[in-house]
Amino acid sequence: MNKDAVQKWVDELMFGDYEQCAGSLTNGQDNKFCALGVAVVAFGKENGLTFWQVRSGMGFDRYPESFVPAKVSDWLGINEHVEQEIVKLNDRMEKTLPEIGTYIRDKYLKEE
Prior knowledge:
- This protein is mainly α.
- About 60% of the residues lie in helices and about 5% in strands.
- The chain contains 6 helices and 2 strands.
- It starts with a helix and ends with a helix.
């Protein structure tokens, strides 16, 4: 796991100005993103790209709208299991973005 990248994602989740959606990375309007969509935003900020540039520049058409492009998951160093865990928190358990950020921080960023 790339702790620096994950920390940037956590910061966006906890302190970013986003409305939350479920079922896809974004609702396509109104600055609404799921927790994984915020990861795409964080990757874009790190690389000087918008969410839409990241999405269109990575073969996103081959993936369902609820999955993170491979370059983003590689940057974070997360696997499909972690992504599914975040989807569950966001979509089924209806945790807020800051709550998900806190969960990720406590589970994956705590010093051992």
